[in-house]
Every structure is written in structure tokens, then in C-alpha cells.
Amino acid sequence: MKNCRRASPTVRPDVSVVSTLAVVIALAVFVIDALTSLEIAAGVFYVVVVLLVASAGNRPATIGAAWGCVALTLLGFVMSHYDAYSGGAIARCLVSLLAIATTSMLALRNLAATAMLHEQVELLNLAQEALARSTAELAHVTRITTLGELAASVAHEVTQPIAAIVTCGGAALRWLNRPAPEIDEAAQSVTQMIRDAKRADEVIQRIRAMARKHDRLPATSNLNGICSESIELVRFELERHDIELETDFAVPAPTACCDRVQLQQVLINLIMNSAQAMLAANGPRRLRIVTRWFDDAHAQVIVQDSGTGISEDDRGRMFNAFFTTKAEGMGMGLSICRSIVEAHGGRIWAESPDDGGAMLQFILPVDKGRCHEQ
Ligand code: ADP
């Protein structure tokens, strides 16, 4: 998902300006060549006409200009020397013709090379677009796969508020069915029901955003908020595996110009990897998520775990596509994380602290008001 910059073709001069200028120069050379008695090979200056037309990048026009210059040279020769064809005049005419022919050939060869270059640039642009499309598709597929892996969490997140709504609904009915209905108590239960319904709706919105095919436009986003939302999506997963979570968020919260859903995808990937590494390590399961200011221009997010840690060898290749040490792994998670972070102008890397575990971290340029508000 790298921000692909289209390779730009060469800027060509305006055709009408070039043709007018070429005609004016050709006429001027013709006048000097045919109507003056200067004993110079003035026709050599026709090469300027050929080069000028060639600069517009039009092959047929360049060939036409070359033949036109040859014709004008011969006409000029006939007109100025019709009474006496001296050896010097013939030689000057031949030099001019030779200059025009050589220049035209070189200009045509140059045009062919430029056309080939343009074709290659076009192919490169198409390849870049195809790559960007496939990376976006892949990111989408991985998001769906991640949601599949989170199925238990997702189901829990949605069923919990729904179960609470049912309980509160029952309670409200009981308060109302009393011989002396307890309106205040019933109202409290209904308020609770509304709160739970909103919670369920938020969870569904988050899941729908993750499952959506197309990403949204980048917007000014609060990184602490993105971390909290991602944690909410995996919270049940963490609880289920007795993973102790500690957060340490920077105040004021760093903001970055980013696609919220893509960033959530990065965080969920990192958290799920940490969870798996901690399950494999059979030790204490501690996960720490930190946001902080890296420097004036960058915010940093750190996901640190007490898992297996990362060997020196793996640290260099774990972000490569298809690298995995897991039996069921795809090896795409970190590669997509890297594409997303780099597309946002950031950098992602991994460290293995001396006291064990892994520390995956990325930095993003902080938003300096270049992005639209969300
Ligand atoms: P997958 O999870 O399918 O293997 P990833 O690209 O997400 O693909 O991860 C690639 C590899 O990086 C993992 O197989 C694992 O070896 C290593 N890795 C990633 N995160 C951690 C971590 N927190 N601790 C230890 N190893 C990790």
C-alpha cells in the first residue's frame, strides 16, 4: 500500500508555437541561402528546424520537416546558382544536405528511444497501480481473516450487551407489574437498556468498519483513541488467555493523519501476535501498550509483550511477506503492517529487550493540520 507516485512523462513544448517558429526559421534560412550571394552553406541552419520540430515529439512531422528542408535546400541551390553550378556551390549544397540527413536520423532515433521510454513509464505506472490495488485487496483479506480469528471476541462483545438488555428489560417489566408500579426503578432499567444497546451498536459499527472493503480517507486521528478501540476489539481474547494489560498513553494525545481502520488493523495484528507469542512462552503474560512522542515530528506506539522474544535472525526478516514460524501462520500480518505504516510516512521495527519478550513499535508523522478533521 505504498503511496505510489506516478512516473511523469516528459513535458513537450506547445505544437503550434513550435510549428510557427519552425516555419519562420525555415523561411529565414531559405532567404539567406537562395536570395543572398553569401558563399556559405546556409542550408546547414535547416538542422535547427528539424531539431525544433523533433522537440515536439511527433515522428511524422519530423520526417516531413526533414524532407521539407531538403527540398528548400535544393530549391535554394537551383535559384541562386541556376546560371553557373560551381564546384564550391555544389559542395556547400551537399554539406547542407548531409547535415540535414544526419540530424534527422539522430532526431528520429532519439524520438524512438523516447517513445520506448514513455511506454516503459506507462507500464511502470500500470504495474504500480496494480500493486497498490493488490496490496489493498490483501489488506482487506487479512482484516477479514483477523476478524475470523477474533470470532470469539466479537461474539462475546455483541452478546454481552444484548444479554444485559434482556436482563434489564425483564427487571423493568417486573418493576412495572408490581401492584404499585415503581416507575423510577423501571426508568433506570430502561436507561441501562439504552446504554447497552448503544454499546452493542458501537461494537457492530467497529466490526463493520473493519470488514469494509474500501478504506476511508485519511483523517486527523487521536492515536490513544485508536489504541483504545483496538483493545476493545481484542479485550475478550486477552481476558480469555489471562493476559494482563497495561496501557500508558501520552498526554496530550498524539494525533496523526491516518486511516483509522488501517491503523486499528496494525494494532490488532501486533496485539494478536503478542498474545500468540505469550501463549507459546508458558510464562507470565503481560502486554503493555504505550503511546508517546518520539520527537517533535513523530508519535510512537509500542506493543510490548512477555512472550518468546525474537531471535536476531528473525528480526531482520519478520516483516517480509510469507515469513512465519507458526504452523498455521500466513506470514502476511507484519508485512501488511509495514505497508500501512510506511504508506502513512512512518516506520515500524521490532526489538527484543534484554529482560525477554518482544517490543514491536512504529512511529508516524504527527498531524500538522494537513489532514481533514474526522
Ligand atoms: P504470522 O502471524 O502469520 O506468522 P506475521 O507476519 O504476523 O505472520 O508474523 C511473522 C512472524 O514474526 C511470526 O511467525 C513470528 O515468528 C514473528 N513474530 C511476530 N510478532 C511476534 C512477537 N510479538 N513475538 C515473537 N515473535 C513474533
From TrEMBL:
Enzyme class (EC, first level): transferase
Coiled-coil intervals: none
SUPFAM superfamilies registered for this protein in UniProt: ATPase domain of HSP90 chaperone/DNA topoisomerase II/histidine kinase, Homodimeric domain of signal transducing histidine kinase
PROSITE patterns reported for this sequence: HIS_KIN (PS50109)
Lipid biosynthesis recorded as keyword: no
Record key words, sorted: ATP-binding, Kinase, Membrane, Nucleotide-binding, Phosphoprotein, Transferase, Transmembrane, Transmembrane helix, Two-component regulatory system
Entry EC no(s): 2.7.13.3
Catalyzed chemical reaction(s): ATP + protein L-histidine = ADP + protein N-phospho-L-histidine
Keyword Membrane carried by entry: yes
Domain spans labelled Histidine kinase: 153-368
Superkingdom of origin organism: Bacteria
PANTHER family in the cross-refs: PEROXIDE STRESS-ACTIVATED HISTIDINE KINASE MAK3 (PTHR43065:SF10), SENSOR HISTIDINE KINASE (PTHR43065)
Protein name per Swiss-Prot or TrEMBL: histidine kinase
